[in-house]
Amino acid sequence: MEVSRKKYSVIMALLVAALIVIAIASLVYGRYEMSFADIYNVFVNRFNGIQDDTLKIIDHVLINVRLPRILLAALVGAGLSISGAALQGTFQNPLVSPDLLGVCAGAGVGAALSILLFSDNTMLMSVLPFIFGICSILLVFFLAKTGSQTGTLSLVLAGIIVSSIFNALTSLVKYVADTGDKLPAITYWLMGSFSNTSYMQLKIAIIPATVGIIGLLALRWKINILSLGDEDAYTMGINPGRTRWLIIFFATLVTSACVTVSGVIGWIGLVIPHICRRIAGVNHGKLLPVSCLLGAAFMILVDTLARNLTTAEIPIGILTALIGAPFFAVIYGRTKGGS
Question: CA-CA distance, 130 to 267, in Å (whole number)?
């Protein structure tokens, strides 16, 4: 299915509008109530350099708590979605997601170790998951190169092996962790959350995530060619192996940055691209930008629900699984198991 340029422009405009509306609604709704007028006054006062003591608490909650959380949720949602869409096209498999190559499992080990050993060092706790995420893809590359299989199959098999190894290491770290505070912290991080978001986390994630997203967008036309098969790619003058690894590198960069600051959030990179294909078609030139916008809007919406549904905030990974799994089951049922 291929949408026309006019229809695609309408879709993009609607998604941008939806993203803005959801972001503003997320600013308003929370445990500390505030009105649209309060938000407007805070930003106007900030712009004009005016200090209003009557809006001091609202200003703090809005600027230092909700705004960085919304920005980070949008970045993570966009990053995981575009990574999933790019990898599914690259591997010619709609069941591929960013955690298939072991990136999430590797970042999980890094996070567990940082919580266990360096809980007082904020920088190490932020950087270590990212380093382990990158190491996981390097290990996948090594195993894929030394395996007897070639192409996408070797990458998938290597990803499964690496994920199993890192998941076992995470379980080992949880086994030796103090049950009083370390183990609950590790378990909560692995479920995914934006509850402790700050501008520091946003600074850590924004550069690698942005570089990765821009890289994937720049390669979106080559992903179309890779989805046709290696023989067609060679015919069109593209080295499929080199291009595939470049796409994997950018997807890993994005995923590692996202997992570092939000924990493991599943299903976004699997389900959102499926929805976007029904909206924008299979052309990755249009699919990837749509995936970014829809993923960002969806993540902000789910995070808003996570912090408002109950008095105790629900880990966002639980909600994405509860929403994503049934939705994917419906898609699978309608296609009768087809791709």
Answer: 20
pLDDT tens figures, 66-75: 999 999 999 9
Around Cβ 323, how many Cβ atoms within 10 Å? 17
Report the candidate in 249, 234, 258, 40 with the shortest Cα–Cα distance to residue 134.
249
| Model confidence band, residue 337 (pLDDT cutoffs 50, 70, 90) | very low
- The two structure tokens encoding residue 85: 């869409």
The per-residue pLDDT for 2 is 74
Could you tell me which residues are beta bridge partners of residue 147?
Answer: none
Report d(CA 171, CA 73) in Å as an integer: 27
Do residues 34 and 58 lie in contact, with contact meaning Cβ atoms separated by under 8 Å? yes
The counts of H helices and E strands in the chain are 15, 0
Q: How far apart are CA 250 and CA 171, in angstroms?
A: 28
Q: Which pair of tokens denotes residue 104?
A: 């999430």
Euclidean distance between CA atoms 158 and 150, whole angstroms: 11
How high is the pLDDT of residue 169? 94
The helix/strand/coil state of 121 is coil
